[in-house]
Design brief:
Layout: H1 5-17, E1 20-21, H2 22-29, H3 33-45, E2 49-54, E3 57-62, H4 67-85, H5 92-103
Antiparallel strand pairs: 1-3, 2-3
Length: 106
């Protein structure tokens, strides 16, 4: 699920910015609206994110119970181990992509 850069961008955006609607996610991630909608559907089906209906507005948020701690653990790992051995791995997004590539999708 997180092997897709768009879905990873949405997860990171929601983790950093809190609950958002589709328009805010599109603007914040710079992804196409259709790509965001498809990605949200996939992330919902795997419960990486949650959906709250507020009238006609749909608000998406990160799964605080499992996904947010997992991202924090990945950041801790990267800050502890990866920066020491990889000069090219300064950007956390790059590091997360490398971890996912080497250890598989989460």
């Amino acid at each position: 699920t997180l092997g897709n850069e768009g879905r990873l961008a949405i997860i990171q955006y929601l983790a950093q910015r809190g609950p958002k609607n589709v328009t805010q996610i599109v603007e914040g991630t710079k992804l196409e609206q259709s790509a965001v909608s498809h990605s949200l559907k996939r992330l919902l089906s795997c419960q990486f994110i949650h959906l709250e209906q507020n009238g006609k507005e749909r608000i998406y948020s990160i799964n605080e119970y499992t996904i947010k701690p997992l991202l924090a653990l990945m950041d801790k790992h990267v800050n502890t181990f990866c920066k020491k051995v990889c000069d090219k791995c300064v950007d956390k997004k790059v590091i997360k992509k490398i971890i996912i590539k080497n250890y598989g999708n989460i």
